[in-house]
Amino acid sequence: MNSPYGSHPEKLPDNGKGRYETKEMPSAEVDKQISRIRWKLILREFAKVYIISLAIFMVIASACFIGVQSLLSKVEYATEEDMVIPDDLDNLYVKPAADEQLAEAATLTEEDMAATEEQLEQIALDENGLRYEEGVTNILLLGTDGRKASSKNARSDAIIILSINENTQKLVMSSIMRDTYVNIPGRKENEKITHAHVYGGPALSMQTVEENFGIRIDHFAAINFYAFMDIVDALGGVDVP
């Protein structure tokens, strides 16, 4: 049976007449050699893929190792001495910042102190010893939790001092937390500032703010839930689906 690849003549020694005799190679031997060549090509390609894959893996592994080592080198581990709290805390001090700009920002110079004192001196005191400034109007804004038409005996959950500065044409709003413990005039012990409105309405709330914060309050505005709804409607309302 002939090989599908045809017959392959095999060279034999010279017969002395200047010719070479040939004989046909068995087809089984031809198939064996072709198969051997195929396997060599397959193994060669596999070796290339394996070497390339191994090289890529080594590069990635090396990069990961270097990255982990770089991160670990930046970690500062606490020692037992670091976990001990010194007994002489009162004698410790904070070192100045190494950066000059940070050091300047972290400390007040004599010029800064003088400028601050000058600004404080410009703030006048009225006959009651409260601070005020010409051209500045302070309004106490109160938002109570009253759910009836009258806000009597309601707590002031929102307390904001609105300062209108005509000199600088600016508005400044300062919020006071409702749970701030203060001295309410007429009460023996400190209580939450929100209780002042319960005891004496807006008048006592104004007096409490003035005596505890030293700021003169010129006017006030108070709203409850009903007034809040009216304000929302006046601004166009909110559609609730």
The CATH top-level class label of the largest domain: Alpha Beta
CATH superfamily of the largest domain: LCP protein
Give the low-confidence spans. 1-8, 74-79, 82-86, 88-106
Terminal residue distance: 91 Å
Question: Any idea what the shape is?
Answer: elongated
What is the arithmetic mean of pLDDT? Answer: 73
Provide the structure class.
Answer: alpha+beta
Order of helices and strands: EEHHHEEEEEEEHEH
- Report the strand count: 10
Q: What keyword list fits this structure?
A:
single chain; 241 residues; alpha+beta; Aminopeptidase; 2 domains; 4-stranded mixed beta sheet; 40% helix; elongated; disordered N terminus
Short description:
The protein has 241 residues and is an alpha+beta fold. It contains 5 helices and 10 strands.
Helix and strand topology:
Blueprint: E1 9-14, E2 20-24, H1 27-74, H2 100-106, H3 110-122, E3 124-125, E4 131-132, E5 136-144, E6 156-165, E7 170-176, E8 181-182, E9 191-192, H4 195-213, E10 219-223, H5 225-234
Parallel strand pairs: 5-10
Antiparallel strand pairs: 1-2, 3-4, 5-6, 6-7, 8-9
